[in-house]
Predict the 3D structure of the following.
Amino acid sequence: MLDAKLLGIEELPDAWLASVEFSGMIREDASAGPSPFREVWNMSKPVSGGGWLVAGVQALQ
């Protein structure tokens, strides 16, 4: 299970910055039960093309 929520986006002179909160349930091992998780991913993208790059991940628990 995965939920995503855009927390904010900011335009700088040469790049876009976005923060997205991901939350849900994750199973890290096939023999284990799912566990809840919550993280904020900060991403950047040049204004003049290119794709989004992960600039940082912060676990919230």
